[in-house]
Known about the structure:
The structure is a single chain. The longest helix has 14 residues. The chain is α/β, with parallel strands linked by helices and 151 residues long. The two termini are 17 Å apart. It has one domain.
Amino acid sequence: MTARALVLIGAVDWQHPAWRGRLYPDDLPDDWLLSYYNTRFTAVFLPAAVWQAASEATWAHWLYDTRDEFHFVLEPAESSPRIPESARVLAATPAWQAEHVWWLDEAPDLRLLAQRITRQAASGEPLFVFSRSGNIDLLEQVDTLRQVMGY
């Protein structure tokens, strides 16, 4: 995996109703949400049901609508559907997740996260920090931590 950033931050999916008026402007069309999300975050974790339901045309649109530094991390699926061929689309096997994912809602202690980022930096491998709940306050704190640490 080649990622330009060491710490990539995001949530599970980009469609959280509570984000309207907070992260997303109230009048933002639904089909612009991903484009807007990708201006604030560098990754999204997609549940299997979401990414498996996406057509090739939808995937092409998602990849086109996001920056080259933005990554889609895919929840493992029971069946083995076709994963889009892109360096920005990553299959999150359990072993890969153990090495590369920090679940923010399960471990919101930013001191522990800073220690993990330091260990991850030594390996040169990226760390994806995701919120299952889409907690904007925690995500913003992580982004501030990332900036303060110089990543």
